[in-house]
Design brief:
single chain, 187 residues, alpha/beta, Rossmann fold, five-stranded mixed sheet, globular
């Protein structure tokens, strides 16, 4: 049996200027509603695994669904919010004079989230539990179909991989953070 975790293609949200926390919140909303950059090349592994699967699993976010269609337009796509990215907390206040690029906001808020700050989103422990549930769902799907392919999200795929490895699946320890990165686990 195999489970392949693929990170979605690069988002069409390309703004990368410095912004305050309120602007970053709007940036994240746009990121979650936009699809992917058209015409971008996929990794060889993602193409190989996606093209050979008749059913592709995705989160319910547009960038994951469009990535699945890009990999295999004829595959049946099963979307599930269970596979969504681990959310970032969004502070309700604006920090005067603090203007950061989106990636810097993401790193800062991710660290705060891991340390316990979860304003307006699931907690770190809740997200880890959701990753465990996702790994069980993928395992069940792989038992039924011999192979499960998930087009998901970088951070959440990493935690799914950790859960798969705890359950005896073998593969790379890290899933990689590049768009279209594909990692396969076997048991």
């Amino acid at each position: 049996m195999e489970i392949t975790l693929i990170r979605h293609g690069r988002s069409a949200q390309i703004e990368n200027h410095r912004m305050n926390s309120k602007e970053y919140k709007k940036w994240v909303e746009a990121y979650n509603h936009l699809g992917i950059v058209e015409g971008e090349s996929c990794s060889k592994d993602a193409i190989e695994k996606g093209a050979t699967s008749s059913i592709l699993l995705t989160s319910d976010l547009r960038r994951a669904i469009e990535s699945a269609r890009t990999l295999n337009p004829s595959a049946k796509i099963q979307s599930d919010p269970l596979f969504r990215e681990m959310e970032l907390p969004m502070p309700d206040i604006n920090f005067p004079g603090v203007r950061l690029r989106p990636n810097t906001w993401a790193v800062l808020l991710r660290l705060l989230w891991i340390w316990g700050y979860s304003q307006g989103c699931e907690s770190y422990s809740e997200a880890k539990y959701r990753a465990k549930r996702a790994s069980l769902k993928l395992t069940s799907f792989a038992k039924e179909h011999q192979h499960a392919v998930l087009i998901g999200h970088g951070f959440f795929n990493l935690y799914i991989a950790k859960e798969l490895q705890k359950s005896g699946w073998t593969g790379k320890r890290r899933t990689g953070s590049k768009h279209w990165n594909a990692v396969t686990y076997t048991i």
